[in-house]
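Running this now, will post back.
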Amino acid sequence: MRRFIATAVSCLMATATFAEDLDAKTAADLLPQAKQEGKVIVYAFTSRIGRVEKAFEAAYPGIDMVTFDMSSTEQIARIKSEAQAGLPGADVIYISDAPVVLTELLANNLVISYVPPRVAGTVADQYKSPLLAQRLSTKVLMYNEEAHPDGSPIKNLWDLTKPEWKGRVIMVDPLQRGDYLDLMTEIVLKSDEMAKSYEAAFGKAIALTDGNENAGEQFISALFANDLVLVGSTDDLNKAIGAKGQEKPPIGFTSYSDRRDNEDEGWALQVANDVTPSNGIVFPAFLALNSKQANPAAARLAVDFLMGDDSKNGGEGFKPFYVAGDWATRSDITPHKDAIPLADFKGWQIAPAETAKIRADVADFILALQ
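Update: finished.
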């Protein structure tokens, strides 16, 4: 038994040392082993991963990048089930929903951190620990700029609860998509700001009703009572808000970066930035490794590629994300010319640990409203 334990400990130490050796290697050093592996599997919460796949395979012939586009909620469930079944799953995890990723995946060693040495010095500590954030994304209030050429028709979040917006506010069901649940949770966490904004909107202090415990819950209750429309996908939501030719289009919460599809889809999506107290949330898009990746060198090469090359716009690896509405975490990538500077953006940057504490309670609260 002692010999067995000693052997097992020795194997674990060797595995850890091997991983550390790979972590320190440059992309050029990783390439020979990555070519021997010949494949890397990536789970991603964005369809833009398809463009990364083509660019990666062009840059590294002989290494097949196999990508799966699924929401962060779907990824989390799949990663857990694969780990329980002993299946290898993805090598690279590209995912949002930080509160769950950190408390359920990272905390249980289902994913591990990897920061390519080439970019380590260009990413602030807050964006490379405990996991590497490739960029910052959003769930914020968006409107139809064709119907509202003078700017957002909403200046205060509480305006969404007024009669003129009854049945005209739309969002993806927060019980189906974690990033939308994070948005609702942040509204509760920012209840003091929501209370001040209520007074600004209605000229009187907020009075809590119907058992609501704070201004955030009061807002969510009022939003549902004003016939909030829940849909199943961001594609449906973006079309509903952004489609041209509408006299009274709805308004709703989606990704600021979805404006990139305006020309191709015939939309007129625009972000409502001048909103009190905030237009929504800003959150990290993580790059992590499966703790038991089948293709360790190719996995690290893929993460390095997704972080962008050394050009000012990140090159082909970062090109799908170099759009207004996504902010690179690398300080040496020039902000997109059409983007609102992050410092001027009204979205709340979430604190995942704080969100995680009450997220389940907010989900139960919303379930009762539905």
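The chain has 13 helices and twelve strands. More later if anyone needs it.
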